[in-house]
Amino acid sequence: MKYFKKLYRRYKLGEYYEEVVFKNKHYLDAQKGSIYQATSDKKRYDVINHLLASLNRETFYLEIGVRNPQDNFNLIKANVKYSVDPGLEYTQNPVDFKLTSDDFFEQLDQGALLSKSIKFDVVFIDGMHLASYVDRDISNALRYVKDDGFIVLHDCNPPTEWHARDQYLYEWTPANKYWNGSTWKAFVKYRKMNNLSSCCIDIDWGVGLISKGKNIGEPTSIDDEFYEYSTFCLSRKEVLNLISFDEFKLMVDR
Ligand SMILES: C[S@@+](CC[C@H](N)C(=O)[O-])C[C@H]1O[C@@H](n2cnc3c(N)ncnc32)[C@H](O)[C@@H]1O
């Protein structure tokens, strides 16, 4: 009898999850969003390589946050490449500078590594995905990117608020293991700046681009004072200047 009661309780719990969790709109939207972004046929390295090739010269590339270099860094076609990562997610961590990006830029400023006068054609920011960190990464990268070069940011277009959560390690949300963090907030801060040009390519979780000298999109005038995800979600096309990969290629090649 006890056994059957236990079985029945389990069955009821399963039924509850089916109704309350797996058929819930938040859960279904998050699953759909994850599939759309994770199966995108164009990836961040396609964007970066297209930008580097468009410059038609010897190119310098910096990647902040590398994890396994086979996923992106090794696929980048630049003449000179540097990588920065403190090694939080991949124990081998085969990078040039085993540092946080804050420490890397501090040492670069002091002339303790590379050269103070170095300028990159592309800086790819993909380190800690919390807005305050990404904000510092963008601010530092702006000082070390060439005027006609590009800052590229991964994870600017979280499909739902669950993907945009602060907590990386907690996976019991409708987004499961997928995490974009609050990178979008930092990107949007720079999307508002009139001295910068920017856009976001709608592939691979949103690949954001910022340039000081190349015209790649007008700043946004939309200002969400309280940075609520729901407001961002309603106007994301304009706030991010969201464009397709084909539109991006046309813009760069014109
Ligand atoms: C999403 S992974 C990078 C993925 C890689 N860029 C790619 O395209 O496949 C994020 C990496 O950022 C690193 N990271 C975390 N905090 C960091 C920080 N403060 N500065 C630089 N990198 C950081 C982690 O160790 C991790 O390897």
UniProtKB/TrEMBL annotation:
<keyword id="KW-0489">Methyltransferase</keyword>
<dbReference type="GO" id="GO:0032259">
    <property type="term" value="P:methylation"/>
</dbReference>
<protein>
    <submittedName>
        <fullName>Class I SAM-dependent methyltransferase</fullName>
    </submittedName>
</protein>
<keyword id="KW-0808">Transferase</keyword>
<dbReference type="Pfam" id="PF13578">
    <property type="entry name" value="Methyltransf_24"/>
</dbReference>
<dbReference type="InterPro" id="IPR029063">
    <property type="entry name" value="SAM-dependent_MTases_sf"/>
</dbReference>
<dbReference type="GO" id="GO:0008168">
    <property type="term" value="F:methyltransferase activity"/>
</dbReference>
